[in-house]
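Bench notes, afternoon.
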Amino acid sequence: MTSFNIHRAELEDDPDSPEQFASRGADIGFAIGGEHLGGSLIEIPPGFRAWPYHWEAAHEEWLVVLSGAPTLRTPDGEEELVPGDVVCFPTGPEGAHALRNASDEPCRVVMLSNRAKVNVIVYPDAGKVGVRTPWVRSNFLEDSAVGYWEGE
């Protein structure tokens, strides 16, 4: 059995993320050989966001706050969380969420989710849709959608 220690984990930057998304993370699920569940340890510096506002079609996600006071945005508005808070983001629009750190101290969270080979992610603020499969990893603007029979 392989273990992962959230207190000693080496976090990595995402070199492709825009400046306002400066979180660092480690893939817990990969590190421990998870097959059906995935998890990430994420640290968000003060004044930055972890990811864009989104919801997922196939992944239920859970957020566990380890330290700091991140601000959670959901369809119900914004709420400041504290260490020990656990939140579930169900699949579909009601599970939309984003996380930012409006405090003066870094915050650390763990995100857990089921693993699905096929997923669709909707980004309401950006008007785009992400398609994730073992073969396709693309994002599209929603207003570029075409009818089923178009081009046939």
